[in-house]
Amino acid sequence: MEGPGPGGRNSPLETERGKERNDAPGWGVPMRVIAIVNQKGGCGKTTTTVNLAGCLAADGQRVLVVDLDPQAHSTIALGVDPEQLDENLYEVLVEPDGAQRLGAVLVDAGERLSLAPAGIVLSALEQRLATEPVETRTERLSRALEPLQQDYDYALIDCPPSVGLLTFNALRAASEVIVPLETSPFAIHGVEKLLETIGLLVERIGHELSVRVLPTLYDGRTRYARQTLSRIRERFKDMCFDTVIRSNVKLREAAARGIPISSYARTANGAVDYGALATEVAALGLLDASALPLPAYEETPREVVVRYRDASASDVRIAGDFNGWVPDKGVRSLIESEGEIRVWTKILKLAPGTYQYRYVVDGEWREDPENQRGVASDVGPRNSVLVVR
Questions:
Q1: Of 288, 318, 351, at which residue does a domain stop?
Q2: Cα separation values, 223 from 104, 110, 184, 226, 254, Å
Q3: Same domain, 284 and 306
Q4: Under DSSP, is residue 386 helix (H, G, I), strand (E, B) or coil?
Q5: Which residues contact 201 (CB under 8 A, 6 or more apart)?
Q6: What's this model's pTM, rounded to 2 decimal places?
Q7: Considering its fold, how many domains does the chain have in total?
Q8: 30 and 54 share a domain?
Q9: Domain around 313
Q10: C-alpha distances in angstroms, 382 versus 212, 284, 354, 368?
């Protein structure tokens, strides 16, 4: 039986992938494999996997979601009933030559979005492979993904809430790790232990991983949440994403409908936040790709000053096409007060031209309230426009 592929649930995978791949944004660039990991349940792993995938796909990227959790929450959140599938990732990982079967189990989950589904049978994998050498049984997923390097731009792996064989397979296959972290002190302690575990794995197998922490379930209306977010940023510093995922009931509604938030409610806070995360993830990849440097301007840069005023904000950064959308990269910042109003001054070095930008205020992307010039953005609020003459 031929497996479903990105072109349809019953179409041959190789035919559909090969037909349009030359037009995909990342053609010729190896697939980025990102594991979404945290041994704690309820912190937003599945929500992040599914909705980051949806936003990347909406931006034109070809995305593969790999559901490694026996609970199959990513599978269900993408509208697939695991009980109705004849095969899932278990068949791929349990046999020595199972890697060749990955294409046959993939399911179409939307435009430019595919799913490697899970099932409860995955919970038996560790016992089935107990007698194999560690090196062999932890690289099953990596071998299965290898033939797909040119077929997708991203593979996002949803890991189970434990650090066992399935999670180790994800870490061996990935080059990047996102750790969703709910804004609570107990969660911070758990993530510190997880990072120690990841560090031991990296040392043991010599496999480098780029790890970033993503604050989730944030309610900025409470002082407690704001203080905890500040602690997270202070503790993890550059490891912390600038994007913060706010609590949003629309995310749960989208999961119940079996579709990403970007397809369910594009203007909801959840869609805005995950759209911002997709932008930040993509920008980090561009900065890491030596073949895709930021544009160089021949004209002499000049100093440009912009200011953001707010009485309640605790952290304000600026990101735009002038710095690869990485908040405060290459920006000099000053913080002053005007009575009860705090003023963030951002000093930029820009050549003459037109630039788009947004502020990141306590993890939330916002347009410049003092600049009426702006353009529509694909996701979230408008981008402000800065003209340097």
A1: 288
A2: 50, 39, 12, 5, 28
A3: no
A4: strand
A5: 168, 171, 207, 209
A6: 0.69
A7: 2
A8: yes
A9: 302-388
A10: 26, 21, 15, 9
